[in-house]
Design brief:
The protein is an alpha/beta fold. It has helices spanning 6-21, 25-37, 43-56, 59-66, 91-99, 115-126, 152-162, 185-196, 217-221, 234-249, 283-291, 332-338, and strands spanning 77-81, 103-107, 134-136, 145-149, 167-170, 174-178, 206-212, 255-256, 261-264, 274-280, 297-302, 312-313. The strands form two sheets. Strands 8-9-10-7-6-11-12 form a seven-stranded mixed β-sheet, sandwiched between helices. A five-stranded parallel β-sheet has the order 3-2-1-4-5, sandwiched between helices. It starts with 5 loop residues before the first helix and ends with a helix.
């Protein structure tokens, strides 16, 4: 097995970035057909994912990321159980395994079993030495460690089966936004990306907002009108209609702009097409509340200078993670490096 140098890996990943920004016709045909097997994977959303990954794999960030990577001379077999809630969501885990010189045993999600193999095929055309580090499996066996992404329910299954080997087991997480009341219309419009990109299906999508006590909901809804086309997606519309009917039947107080339901609720993970909100009076008290719920949060979107451990991002940036923005705030590279300590 050829051990690739940092320089060769950076060149390969940079070339992949260029391909993702300008895919060939065969890949464009795959993009166009993706919604036939997963209705959420519209051409627009797949393009959105490809552009985000292309931006992630820029040369400057790759060099910075590789400063913390130790390429092993003794590869381990790392089992990867990937999610499929948004296009190519498992790519970063695969990339991390390849970057550290280990072998990725990939258990694809049935929801995303075409795009990722196509991207990795292109990567192997760019750097053929990576081919031996990528193995697709129907069932994990003969592995040295596991990175598994799932729900709170599946995590118990994962812990039972994989608890005896080094592992990262991810559970349900979501993201929230904190508004101060001083946001511009442009800020709220940017927040719309955190709400609606990938139809709100990602753990980095905002499912709850915190509002000052006297905040006027009208100020929130107006800048979001540009996203109203989302209601024309039949699956999103079905969720909107269903949740709206539940609230109406139960006389549950809520706000409705025709494509998003806003409901006051102390929960974090709102149903699809619903955004929870909660009002706060003191920012310090809110900071303490967020610290107490770190295990539920992927990231926080806000202009406020929040003193919390969870990553705080600008409006519109939640679905544009950097290479070092690790899921569940668990450093995947440190974990992989430790396998050979």
């Amino acid at each position: 097995m050829t051990i690739l140098t940092v320089e060769k890996l950076i060149i390969a990943f940079k070339k992949l970035s260029q391909f993702l920004a300008e895919p060939d016709q065969d890949f464009k045909n795959l993009i166009a057909s993706s919604r036939n097997s997963n209705a959420w994977f519209t051409e627009q959303e797949v393009d959105r994912s490809l552009n985000a990954l292309s931006q992630m794999l820029n040369e400057e960030d790759l060099k910075k990321w590789f400063e913390g990577i130790h390429i092993t001379a003794f590869p381990k077999k790392v089992g990867l159980i990937l999610a499929g809630n948004i296009p190519l969501v498992g790519f970063h885990d695969v990339l991390s395994v390849l970057a550290t010189g280990n072998t990725a045993l990939i258990k694809l999600s049935s929801s995303d079993d075409k795009l990722l193999p196509a991207v990795l095929k292109q990567l192997c055309l760019i750097e053929p030495a990576l081919t031996v580090q990528i193995v697709y499996v129907e069932r994990l066996k003969d592995f040295n460690s596991v990175i598994a992404t799932g729900s709170n329910n599946t995590s118990r299954y994962f812990e039972y089966y994989f608890g005896k080997v080094p592992n990262i087991i991810r559970k349900n997480r979501t993201s929230v936004a904190v508004l101060s009341g001083n946001e511009t219309k442009e800020d709220i419009a940017d927040l719309g990306h955190d709400l609606f990109d990938y139809f709100g299906l990602g753990c980095r999508n905002v499912s709850k907002i915190y509002l000052p006590e006297n905040y006027d909901i009208k100020e929130f809804f107006e800048p979001l009108e540009q996203y109203n086309d989302i209601i024309n997606h039949f699956k999103y519309n079905n969720n909107y209609d269903y949740n709206k009917s539940i609230y109406l039947v139960n006389s549950a107080k809520h706000f409705d702009n025709g494509f998003l339901l806003l409901k006051e609720d102390k929960g974090f993970s709102s149903p699809l097409a619903v955004l929870y909100f909660e009002r706060y009076s003191k920012l310090k008290d809110l900071e303490n509340a967020l610290k107490n719920h770190e295990e539920n949060l992927q990231c926080v979107v806000s202009k406020a200078a929040l003193a919390i451990n969870t990553a705080v991002l600008h409006f519109g940036d939640s679905q544009h993670p950097k290479l070092w923005d690790y899921a569940d705030n668990v450093n995947t590279i440190d974990f992989l490096n430790s396998l050979n300590d």
